[in-house]
Specification:
nine-stranded antiparallel beta sheet, about 280 residues, binds cobalt (II) ion, Jelly Rolls, seven-stranded antiparallel beta sheet, mainly beta
Length: about 280
């Protein structure tokens, strides 16, 4: 494992905001709209996790998207996806769905279980202006196809980018996203090199981890500082071990205009998206 000369520090810890979306699915919006500029190219991160069916059973019935990508990562539970392009897939624990909405798609994400735990994340990754109207695309990545990297006390599920020399399931040229699910045993340390201009955060979802000297408790996002010359991030698990996602990407530095499920560059493009949706041109 590499040693860092200038590890990143924690700029701030964020608790997220409890809310609901879809047909009453309870979730925590960790990356909210106010953080879109700071964490460019990432637009949103929702964390959902409940043992109670009432918190998730409504699911996310048909709704549109345009202008960005959605990345759904299931930790536990079963969720079925259907979209207007005719794609359909079942997401189970450990699976990833990467969907490029591009010029538009209408889809549903519905639980396929009546009880038990449902847990996971949905991350929104922006597209550069030139790709916002590209044809929609999607890929279901079953649990066994998510590459894993290992070091002492550390297992990394490499969703995007690379870790410990292992290429992830997905690569994206414009935003060069890194998306890692880290499983750390008690006291284990993990180091990831990152370019200093990539915006990056860690979200701890089990146990506790330290980034440098700063303790990051469970259900907190640590935004990592972009100090010039910083060469990466170092995480150390607390005495109970830790599980966390590490997300980083190259900022697009383009204007962001969002109205609900549409994310474009200008207000005019948003009006057009709404019109196209109403006229049935997204299906
Ligand atoms: Co959606």
């Amino acid at each position: 494992m590499h040693t860092l000369q200038h590890p990143r520090s924690v700029e701030r810890l964020v608790a997220g905001r409890a809310t609901s979306d879809g047909a009453g699915v309870k979730l925590v919006r960790v990356l909210t709209q106010e953080l879109q500029r700071r964490l460019d190219p990432f637009l949103m991160l929702d964390a959902f996790g409940s043992d109670s069916r009432d918190d998730y059973i409504g699911g996310f019935p048909d709704h549109p998207h345009r202008g960005f990508e959605t990345v759904t990562y299931m930790l536990e539970g079963r969720m079925r996806h259907r979209d207007s392009a005719g794609n359909e897939g079942l997401l189970t624990g450990g699976a990833v769905q990467w969907m490029t909405a591009g010029r538009g798609v209408i889809h549903s994400e519905m639980p396929e279980q009546d009880d038990g735990r449902m847990e996971g994340f949905q991350l929104w990754l922006n597209l550069p202006a030139r790709d916002k109207m590209c044809p929609p695309w999607y890929r279901d990545i079953p649990p066994a196809d998510v590459p894993e990297a290992r070091a002492e006390g550390v297992t990394v599920r490499v969703i995007a980018g690379q870790a410990l020399g292992v290429p992830g399931a997905m690569q994206r040229e414009a935003t060069a996203p890194t998306y890692l699910d880290l499983h750390l045993q008690a006291g284990a340390r993990f180091v990831q090199e990152l370019p200093d201009d990539h915006n990056a955060f860690v979200y701890v979802y089990r146990g506790e981890a330290a980034v440098g000297e700063v303790a990051v408790p469970r259900q907190r996002m640590a935004i990592l500082a972009n100090t010039p010359g910083a060469d990466g991030v170092s995480l150390t698990a607390g005495p109970e071990g830790a599980r966390a996602i590490l997300v980083a990407g190259r900022p697009l530095r383009e204007p962001i205009a969002q109205y609900g499920p549409f994310v474009m560059n200008t207000q005019e493009e948003i009006y057009r998206a709404v019109e196209d949706f109403r006229a049935g041109r997204l299906a």
